Amino acid sequence: MQAYIRAAIGAGLLTLAVGSSQSAAAADCPADHDQLEKALKASVKPSGGPTNGGLDNNEWAALVTRDGAVCAVAFSGNKPDDQWLGSRAIAAEKASTANALSLNGFALSTANLYAGAQPGGFLFGLALSAPPNPGVLYSGDPAKFGSASDPFVGKSLGGVITFGGGLALYDGKTVVGALGVSGDSSCADHNVAWRVREALGLDKAPAGPGPDHNDEIIYDIVPGMPSASGYGHAQCKGSESEIAEQIHAGFVPRWAKVTR
Predict the structure, then answer these.
(1) Which one of 39, 52, 89, 173 has the minimum C-beta count within 10 Å?
(2) Residue 182 and residue 165 in contact, taking contact as beta carbons nearer than 8 Å
(3) Domains, the chain, ranges and CATH?
(4) Nearest Cα to 150, choosing from 80, 59, 76, 67?
(5) How far apart are CA 30 and CA 28, in angstroms?
(6) What is the rounded average pLDDT of the residues 150-177?
């Protein structure tokens, strides 16, 4: 009986601790679950939004606080497997990466890390520098994935992703956290993230490596040549780069434009 009571007390304390961490993360979150879900659905074509030039898949999105704790997770479809299930974690890791590597005065998107993380690049090995926490990655009830009580909420997943889809969030003064989007080509993910960040009103990036002095994706890599800027990203197979230019989310030098 005493063992049963101790176990019950332990379970109760664990529940209180999880609830407390989720409440703290929610309080510091750049936006709440419903705001994230609404912005995501409006930015993804299967949910009635605009095309982003990729496969036009449904997508996952995640927010982290400035402390790096996941505070909201949402998907654009009607149920979790309407989008790639593996992209739930990737979205959260993209948010973690953009948050960890952006400053109040200088924003770095995950797209800006692509060239530097390649062999011979100045960030080579970055993708392996902080693996996601497996205890968080594989935790929780799958029935709650993408809900306001997603098992990631209130926990620091970590992880480092070095391709498009992660953006730091700015309120005009400081970094307030970050956003990650995943579920399509990395180039389309960047476009969706750009639209979502704008919809949330947290797109006031102060400076960045892009020609427009922000964290836009830079398509200055062509086969056989390194990135001219050092912060470039490979072009994907669809019209993602053209869409990025249209929504001011990316830059393609004239010499790097791909003729299809």
Answers:
(1) 173
(2) yes
(3) 2-256 (3.30.450.150)
(4) 80
(5) 6
(6) 98
